[in-house]
Amino acid sequence: MTQKGNAWWKDKAVYQIYPRSFCDSNGDGIGDIPGITSKLDYLKDLGIGIMWLSPVYCSPNDDNGYDISNYRDIQKEFGTLKDMKKLISEAKKRDIRIIMDLVINHTSDEHPWFTESRKSTGNPYRDYYIWRKGKRNHKHSSDALQNQKPPNNWSSFFTGPAWHYDTLTDEFYLHLFSRKQPDLNYNNPKVLAEIKEILKFWLDLGISGFRCDVINVIYKSSLKDGKKRLALTGREHYVSQDGCHTILKELKRDVFSAYDCFTVGETVLVDTAMAHDLCSSERGELDMVFSFEHMDTDHINNKWFKTKFKPGKFIKVITKWQSCLDWNANYLENHDQIRSVSRFGNDTKYHDVSAKMLAVLLLTLRGTPFIYQGEEIGMTNAYFSDLSEIKDVESHYVNELAKKMHFPPSIRWKMIQKSSRDNARTPMQWNTQEHAGFSPKGKSEPWIRVNSNFRTINVENQSKNKDSILSFYKCLLSLRSGKKSILKGSFFALPGPKDVFCYEREFEDERCIILINFSQKTKKLTNVIQSHIKNGTILCSNYNHTDISCFVTLNPYEAVIIETSQGDKS
Ligand code: ISL
Ligand code: CA
Questions:
Q1: What is the pLDDT of residue 421?
Q2: Alpha helices (H) in 498-561, listed in sequence order
């Protein structure tokens, strides 16, 4: 065991793998661990230093692995513990660290703790979960459920009440997510003791940390009714509570501090102050957090009601987070979000330049960048054609709710087609062969449909092309690793034209200015920016510009990194 030394995770870029959709080695249509191992050279060549694996533990797959039934073993369809050990050691040979997903707000309802817990109110595992009697409904029916209401008015992240009635003991259990994801009870010290042992189990196997799923909602400080809201009624009783901070400090003290590892929290509904308290280095909780505010800039209320993307809002939110937190976990995509090029760029006419523009943003902000599989080749939304193609549990819950609310089928479908998480879960596009090279030829169909644009957008084509999005990512990752200003410099926003994000990164006497045009219009640079960059050197441009003289306008979606020197600051 090594004592945690330097913050190595600040210098590396992370690559997120959604194992089900990355690479299927045995042709059953489902991505697997040997598949991931077979792509390690690809990841090394790309230039990433850390890999985050979405859950690979045993799971009945109600929520694709985010419902865990055994924390100490690998889901059969993904392989075995032996395969996992091999992946860890092969990654290590290539200097790639692995972090795993840690899902401890809830387990699967098929986890033995829960199957025991259900059995009786006196079962030793009863208090591993949150069970309560319902409220009386003042109805008189022979059906027990008809006579009562859930214990409080909280709603679930996946729509509907956050409680499920269980006839066996005539009580309800709490589930902030799906019915098959009962929440653990962190008022029971035995639960945290179990979790600590699970963490050690994986850290001892050689993994380098965890992405902690919905970690800031694990502690419920009361079960009182919440203030009525359009979504997530009850949240004031569980978002970032004192009890959560206490647990995180305890995990750091008793487990993480003894290993050379880091943690990134997925923290929902946080503002910058909450995020600071969860991850500032002096508090000893998490090392960094994923926030959501920038992901909330293209919809009203929730992601199912999309609005036109307004770059100004997005730029303002990112600037705020860059300025308020010392270190951000930067991301534009993950397995829960639609594809960034289809969302913040343009996936038709400007596919190539806008995907590269987003790469510049992701890899030059202050913080650790997280690239999601396929982002490096500009994978787009799936444009599914029918509900039967949709696998995600959340989309189906939402469809049911919209049906109950009498939304016409065509509106329901539009909402799901645009916003379903499945947009990011289509198989990785490796080549032009059958199944995009995700599964071997002639074997089972992939578990989810391949995006029909795989013949043009794929790794093989882009590897051969020096001007591709993939080559651009490689260049940028290598540039980043050698530039102290980009790796660890301060962030300072500069006023730019509308829809253009301008900022400066500075470390000692090295300074870079980054200009990113989020619009399809040509933009004239302000005089201030022009004077800042006039003697600079272009380090990277998605239009292959190299000459700074006469650089006065930005093309549609143009992004440039310009190195300037101290002397030029006006
Ligand atoms: O995807 C979302 C909304 O559409 C988010 O609210 C998401 O549910 C939230 O960010 C929590 O996500 C994490 O925990 C969920 C799981 O379904 C997600 O895949 C995971 O990233 C429950 O474990
Ligand atoms: Ca497989």
A1: 98
A2: 527-533
| Each residue's pLDDT tens digit, 303-354 | 999 999 999 999 999 999 999 999 999 999 999 999 999 999 999 999 999 9
pLDDT of residue 147: 75
Share of the chain above pLDDT 70, in %: 97
pLDDT of residue 567: 44
Q: Please, are residues 550 and 489 in contact by the beta-carbon 8 Å criterion? A: no
Helix (H, G, I), strand (E, B) or coil at 370: strand
Q: How far is the CA of 28 from the centre of ligand 2 (A)?
A: 5
From 107, 157, 211, 419, the mutation candidate for ligand 1 (largest count of ligand atoms within 8 A of CB) is: 157
In angstroms, what is the span from residue 341 Cα to ligand 2's centroid?
28
Look at the alpha carbons of 55, 70, 261, 294 in this order and tell me if their dihedral is positive or negative.
positive
C-beta of residue 234 within 8 angstroms of C-beta of residue 162: yes
Nearest ligand atom owner, CA of 28: 2
| Residues 67/178, Cβ–Cβ less than 8 Å | yes
Q: Measured between alpha carbons, how far is 256 from 359 in angstroms, rounded to an integer?
A: 31
CA–CA separation, 498 and 523 (whole Å): 8
- pLDDT tens by residue, 478-502: 999 999 999 999 999 999 999 999 9
Q: In the numeric block, which tokens belong to residue 483?
A: 């530039």
Per-domain residue ranges of the chain: 9-95+331-383+428-482, 112-174, 385-419, 488-568
Q: What is the DSSP string of 97-149?
A: EEEEEE--SB--TTSHHHHHHHH-TT-TTGGGB-EEPPEE-S---SSGGGGEE
- E strands, 192-238, in order: 209-212
pLDDT of residue 140: 67
Helices and strands, number each (H, E), in the chain = 16, 22
pLDDT of 569 reads: 45
Whether CATH 2.60.40.1180 fits 488-568: yes
Which of these, 275, 308, 314, 309, lies nearest to 294 by C-alpha position? 314
Q: How far is the CA of 336 from the centre of ligand 1 (A)?
A: 6
CATH 3.20.20.80 fits 9-95+331-383+428-482, yes or no: yes
The two structure tokens encoding residue 510: 């090295």
Alpha-carbon gap, residue 223 to 152, rounded angstroms: 7
Phi-psi bin for 117: left (phi > 0), alpha (psi -120 to 50), beta?
alpha
Q: Whose CA is nearest to atom 10 of ligand 1?
A: 268
- Atom of ligand 1 minimally distant from the CA of 268: 10
Decide if pLDDT at 566 tops 70. no
> What confidence score (pLDDT) does residue 386 get?
94
Q: What's the pTM value of the predicted model, to 2 decimals?
A: 0.97
Q: Is the pLDDT of residue 5 over 60?
A: no
Are the C-beta atoms of 19 and 38 separated by less than 8 Å? no
Give me the architecture of the 112-174 domain, per CATH: Alpha-Beta Complex (3.90)
